[in-house]
Amino acid sequence: MGWKRITALLLAALAGCGLTGCGGRMDPDEAQESIQVIAMDTAMVLTAYGEKSTRAVYDAEEEVRRLDALLSRTSGDSEISMLNDAGGEMVTVGEEVCGLIQTAGEFTEATGGTFDITIAPVVSAWGFTTDSYQVPDQETLRTLLEHVGMEHVHLSGGSARLDPGTMIDLGGIAKGYTADRVAEIFQEHGVPRGKVELGGNILVIGDKPDGTAWRVGVQDPKRPDEADGLVCVLDLTDAFAVTSGSYQRYFEQDGKRYHHIIDPATGCPADSGLTSVTVMADSTLGNGTMCDALSTALFVMGEDKALDFWRSGVYDFQLVLVTEDDRVVVTEGLKDDFAELEESGYTYEYVS
User: Could you list the residue range(s) of the whole structural domain that residue 108 is in?
Assistant: First the structure.
C-alpha cells in the first residue's frame, strides 16, 4: 500500500505558526528538543518538551530507524523482504512482525478487505514501489489478484509463511505503529507535551506550551504543494491524526491520472469519489496503527460506506472526508474542534 507521504497532513501549517503554536509563548523554564529524521521514505520531525526531551527524541529516532530496517519491503535485509523472498517456505520473523501481520489481518476482516497488506504485488505492477509507473493490463492484474488475500498468509509463533506468488507490504500500518512506539517512548520519559510528524501521520501529546490545543491543518488535495493550501484546521490534544489522499503519489498516462491507493477488489486505483480521508483518535497506544489502516480502508470504501463503518462503532475514531465534488464531510465528534476555511472553496457538512 506504500508509505504515505508528508504532504498528506500538515501540523501547524498556518502562517506564523512555529513549534510553539500560533502566537503562543513557551515557558522559558521548560526544555525542548526537536530533530528531523529521514526514514520510511519520508521526512519526519520529532519534538518533545520537558526535562528529558533530548533523551526522548533521540531514543525515538533510534526506534524509528530500527522499525524502518525491520519493516521495509524494499530493503533486502528486512524481515519483510526475507519473508517475501522465501518462495513459500516458513521464515522466522519474530513476534513483533508476526503481531503486526496478525493485526493487519484483523483490519482486513473488519473492513471487508478494503485494507489488505497482500496487495503488494499489484502495487508493484503499477510501479508505485519503484517509481517506474505503468498501467498493467487486465490479464496481469487478474493473475496477481489470485494471490491477494490474508488466507495466503500463515503464522506460527514467531514464524510466517506466504503462499507462492503472495507478497506483503506493511507500509499501510508501519508509520502508525511507529507513532505508537514513539508515543510509548515519550510516555516512558515523562514527556508532558510534544508533536511527532511521520509524513501524513501526526501525533500530538498534551497541549502547546501556551495551554492551547495543537492546530492541525488538513491539506487541500487540489493544492498539495502549497503550505497554506488547507481545507480545514483542527484543534487537537492527545491525539493521532492520519491522512490518506489520492494526491500523495500518482502518475498520468494518456491524459488520465492514476493514484497509489489500490482497491484490493479490482487491482486498480480506488475510484471512490474521495480525494482524501483523515482519521483521528485519542493518543491511546494502538490507535496510531488503527488510524493508519483505516485511513486507507475508508478511502477505498468511499463516503457512504466509510460513514456507515464509523457509525458501526467497531472502532472509536472521527473522520474528515474530502470529496471529488468539493465537499468536506466532518463527523460530529470534531465539530467543536473544527475550523472551516471560507477561502478554501469547499462546502462543509457535519454528520451524526
Answer: 77-169
Residue at a domain's end among 169, 189, 220: 169
Domain boundary among 123, 154, 169: 169
Q: Find the mean pLDDT for residues 6-14.
A: 37
Q: Are residues 123 and 183 in the same domain?
A: no
Per-residue H/E/C for the chain: CCCCCHHHEEECCCCCEECCEECCCCCCCCCEEEEEEEECCEEEEEEEECCCHHHHHHHHHHHHHHHHHHHCCCCCCCHHHHHHCCCCCCEECHHHHHHHHHHHHHHHHHCCCCCCHHHHHHHHHCCCCCCCCCCCCHHHHHHHHCCCCHHHEEEECCEEEECCCCCCCCHHHHHHHHHHHHHHHHHHCCCCCEEEEECCEEEEECCCCCCCCEEEEEECCCCCCCCCCEEEEEEECCEEEEEEECCCCEEEECCEEEECCECCCCCCECCCCEEEEEEEEECCCCHHHHHHHHHHHHHHHCHHHHHHHHHHCCCCCEEEEEECCCEEEEEHHHHHHEEECHHHCCEEEEEC
**Would the pTM count as exceeding 0.70?**
yes
In a domain, 319, yes or no: yes
- CATH at residue 345: 3.10.520.10
67-121 confidence digits (pLDDT tens)? 999 999 988 889 999 999 999 999 999 999 999 999 999 999 999 999 999 999 9
